Description:
The complex is a heterodimer. Chain A contains 18 helices and 30 strands. By secondary structure, chain A is α+β, with helices and mostly antiparallel strands. In chain A, the strands form eight sheets. In chain A, strands 5-7-3-14-11-12-13 form a seven-stranded mixed sheet, sandwiched between helices. Chain A has a five-stranded mixed sheet with strand order 9-17-16-15-10, sandwiched between helices. Chain A has a four-stranded mixed sheet with strand order 18-26-27-30, with helices on both faces. In chain B, a hairpin with a 2-residue loop joins strand 1 and strand 2. In chain B, helix 2 crosses helix 5.
Amino acid sequence: MSAGDKKGRFVQTTVEVEGRTETRVVELPAFEPTPWTADAPLTIVGTSPLRTDAFEKVTGRARYTADTVRPGMLHAVLVRAPIAKGTLNALALDRARAMPGVRGVLGPGDAPPGTRLFRRDISYAGQPLAAVCAESLLEAERAAHALAASLDLTPAPHAATVEDALASDAPSVRSAGNATAPAVVERGDVTRGLAEAEVTVTREYRTPVALHSALEPHGAVAEWNGDQLTIWESTQGIFRVRNDVARALGVPQAKVRVLKDYMGGGFGAKNGAGAHTYVAALFARALGAPVRCVNDRRGEQMDTGNRPATVQKVTLGATRDGTLTAVALEAWVPLGISGWEGGPAQIYHEMYSCPNVRTSEVSVYINAGGMQAFRGPGYVEGAFALEGAMNALARTLQMDPVALRRKNLATHDERTGRPFSGNRLDECYVEGMRRFNWPSTVHRPPSTVTRAKRGIGMAAETWPTGGGPPSYANVRINSDGSVDVLAGTQDLGTGARTIFAQIAAEALGASLASVRTVIGDTERLPYTGNSWGSMTTPSVGPAVRMAAEDAKTHLLAAAAPMLNAPIERLSTRDSQVCVDGAPALAFSDLCRRLGNVQIVGHGSRGPNPELAIVTVGAQFAEVEVDTETGVVRVLRIVAVHDAGRIINPALADSQLHGGIIQGVGYALFEERHMDRARGVPLNANLHDYKVPTMADVPVIDALFLGGADPAANHVGARGIAEPPIIPTAPAIAAAVADALGVEVCALPLTPWRVLGALAG
Amino acid sequence: MHLTVNGSPREVDSQRFPTLLAALRDQLGLTGPKLSCGHGECGACTVRLNGDLVYACLSLTAACEGAQIETVEGLAAGENLHPLQQAFITHDATQCGFCTPGQLMAAAALLERNPSPSEEEIRTAMSGNLCRCGTYPKIVAAIRAVAAGANG
Ligand code: FES
Ligand code: FES
């Protein structure tokens, strides 16, 4: 594998995290296993054994953070700002402290500066102002209510929308200005590209603020033992939580242990420590007892991140035959009070081949909870507008939208100039059309139901899924021949435990049943990065494989003298060492003879190749629109994606389903509504913020093409979790436009918006 | 307060644990039912009360005197999983698993009421139980398999 600079043991490599390119220094692994190519004779990887932890989940034995009980545990509750901007003058901390069961309160000035907690200046509704700790959750809630009622506040003018924040008399949201200078990225010359165009389309798209809404809220349990802090946390990144807490509290990382067993979803919102973590740790230290702090649903919906809204003005230019000559975007992204600057632009540079692309993004700060990465951040928003404009261009050109896309297929990553490690998007289009029976499948409704109109539409996606270093894993063979895979990663519900057991069993030649994956402990397990950016499998998978190969080398070296055969004649299969392919010595017998001599293999993730590593795909949607009520029903979705090797097809199906169903929610229902006058969210719950139910789910026919991408990494797998949500909403919007003959350029496609479009 | 929980007589304190969910989770240590919204919006806390499906987060402990409560912990008969539990495993009808206990209770109640529901009936009956991971197609498949007697 190539790396930027091969001179030393430490080299530079690039890693794309949630669509953002980072340069990292990485130590070269001691060896790189030979890549598993598409025709590698694998017997466990590529099959669908059952989830290793399904039994715990169906019996209720799986322990989530809020199920953690410690002896003498206390309960903490946060008090949040009910206004968007202003000052906290006073609150009745002493009265709360005297309430039944209350053991402690924290308010302004009580938290270390590193936690940024309990400030008097309020800059969004939901901001933590104080916290209470009591013997029971009920007592803590009662005291928190009393504190909330005691808040003496001076409200100040706030900005709830892009327009509010950019107005000439706008209140100041942050001292550095309410908006960033436009971040412009251009290749070629868009002005020239537009001059060369025979057809142009210009549209303005709007996307809503969407909330992650994982069913398990953020939460932590903290316990001090002397100066040693243990935290149970629902998180996508145990090491990041550890480092956040160590920094904020000013304690060494070695004194903080973060544990995560089961977690109830994350979707990007659980990537570090939060107010709940610090509050649990602070109370636990002050009170000398374990403390649990779990967000209530309102706090969860107000203050744990969101997919920010966007306004995207898109212009596409093309010649009559559909060749793109220009792609231009002007975007405004209201991040909330904080977040990543930069939003939907990157997909405009990567999705299609076009010599002239210009994007300009303005990040706007408003008085609302800050953004956090949410499944396919930026690309989901960007795809809605880019793919919407592509479909509008296809209509203008009277061209099939798939044909238009195939005409402009990217042959390499034109943003970075890098070749793809593998990219079978064209096959995705072809297979998708075949499965959908595109475009001849519109089942016109029975003539008696004239108000129901059906339509079809499609859209495509690309998403960087290379993963990368650093990630480490160990594979340990116990004295009975059973195998532990040790990696400090996390399973969000994706099936990471199962996947790493499969990879280790395959590489070691062990039976899958003998392998268990141990994850989620910063103290006892080797470092891996956060489970975000669809990175876990392509980052940790190669480290696990290398560790298993390393263990196998040691195992065979130990077996050779016992079997009186040279290592070259030995192999492993189904937890047996074979001589010339014939089983000769079970791992269990071998390890028993070794006694307490322990075989441990070490693995690490090497640098990335200088290639563009992306997961691509296309989705096709059929909808029915009730033109009297404006209700849109999605009837079916066909999805075909290419992510290289699929380690476990059943688990991959769940990622497809999950992404598509969240995409249906984004398309049809999901939107945080703000009371603009007060700057307070109106639907910070799961009833008025509507996520899809079982009744909303279309017929889904979804697959990954499979094969392998040995150029991406030696396991041959790219990431899969985020790509499936990206094209769903634009495909649905295209189908709605097809049904109605009118485009709806804003999400969600609510009845009133659909009826509004119909009324012109 | 006396309740029968998963077949065993139990005592709970309705003063300290006013909701049935708090009594089950925090007093009795039955953490299968989950707290997600606390307002009857999601179904993560679904249990059965005298056979009926209820959101335990909205059920008052004080109103449960003498009631029969079933939680996910009581679904299996000893070591033998309930056919729905087995089908959820076989059909991979869990992702994060946080909604799973509630989904299982809702599915069990549905099949007792209607042993062979249509897909439409399943979707309607189960739509009070959210799954943010989007495991719905596999949950439907698991329920259908049990209804068809083809679990496992
Ligand atoms: S926690 Fe009871 S319905 Fe959501
Ligand atoms: S499996 Fe995660 S919420 Fe249903």
